[in-house]
Amino acid sequence: MAKSSTKAKKAQPYDEDMLMHWYEEMLLQRRFEEKASQMYMQQKIKGFCHLYIGQEAVSTGIESAIRKDDQLLTAYRDHGFALTRGMSPNEIMAEMYGKRTGSSKGKGGSMHMFSKEHNMLGG
Fold first, then answer.
1. What is the pLDDT of residues 32-57, one digit of tens each?
2. Which domain holds residue 106?
């Protein structure tokens, strides 16, 4: 059997700062979603609330692979992406509460996070 002349590239290890950054992003998403779930159960968030629990690594990984000037269009479970894009937890939660201080002035709710500033086109 002939040996391949091309060698596979060895994966470069990630530095501690990058790993910690990813961990903190995923943890923020998890804690945010836990709070959103709690508020939804208390009927403080009206309508639908599609949580992102268990998918935090997806938005964190995608965000690390794209540029800030890339536009991002998501599906309904978009809270994690909104956080990784740089939208504040307060702005996102305000949107879920239907408040004017929300990213879409309270009109998009949980499923339609939008921020032109963050290139977040929502669900």
1. 999 999 999 999 998 899 999 999 99
2. 17-111
Residue pLDDT, tens place only, 66-106: 999 999 999 889 999 999 999 999 999 999 999 999 999 99
Q: What is the per-residue DSSP string for the chain?
A: -PPPSSPPPPPPPPPHHHHHHHHHHHHHHHHHHHHHHHHHHTT-S-S-----TT-HHHHHHHHHHS-TTS-B---S--HHHHHHHT--HHHHHHHHHT-TTSTTTTSSGGG---BTTTTB---
39 occurs within a structural domain: yes
Number of domains in the chain: 1
Assigned domain for 1 exists: no
